[in-house]
Amino acid sequence: MRPARLVRRSALATAAVALLGLLNAPAAHADWSSYIHSWTDGEQSRRWDDQSNTGVSFEGCSQQWGNQDLVDVQLWEDISFWPDDQQGETRRATACFRPDEVSTGIWTGLSPGSYYFETDRIANGGSCCLLFVSDVWVDTTP
User: Where in the sequence is the signal peptide annotated (predicted)?
Assistant: First the structure.
């Protein structure tokens, strides 16, 4: 077999193994951190498993095209083959738009399940604006 053809087959086999690993990856678990880049109303975070309490914190927030420094965050339980269930009240984040301040929403009394948060309203709302957050973290032991 010619060397170039062998390299192509080897690369294809490696890519197939990597893809198989992604397809079989376990669900995201709690206590993770990330960032937000260019979200608008209705964007959803990744899912995580929880047993009772969740805190969602934002630090380093900014928005584009709005005239209000705020974001409303909702927590949802991800229910397979059924409409998802909103958990409690919406939490409004405003402090994170000020330097070195953190906004944290805490939801308690959750049943065991898979959860995610959603940006319900950014600045003026109505999908007008984009949200950027330099540090986002989820804590299941607040």
Answer: 1-30
Domain count, the chain: 1
Q: How far apart are CA 40 and CA 61, in angstroms?
A: 13
How crowded is residue 40: how many other Cβ atoms within 10 Å of its Cβ?
17
| Segment 57-94, tens digit of pLDDT | 999 999 999 999 999 999 999 999 999 999 999 999 99
Looking up residue 68, the CATH number of its domain turns out to be 2.60.120
3-state percent helix, strand, coil for the chain, nearest multiple of 5: 15, 45, 35
Q: What distance in Å separates the CA atoms of residue 72 and residue 123, rounded to the nearest whole number?
A: 9
Distance CA 61, CA 131 (A): 7
pTM: 0.78
- Residue 131 belongs to some domain of the structure: yes
Q: Which amino acid is at 134?
A: S
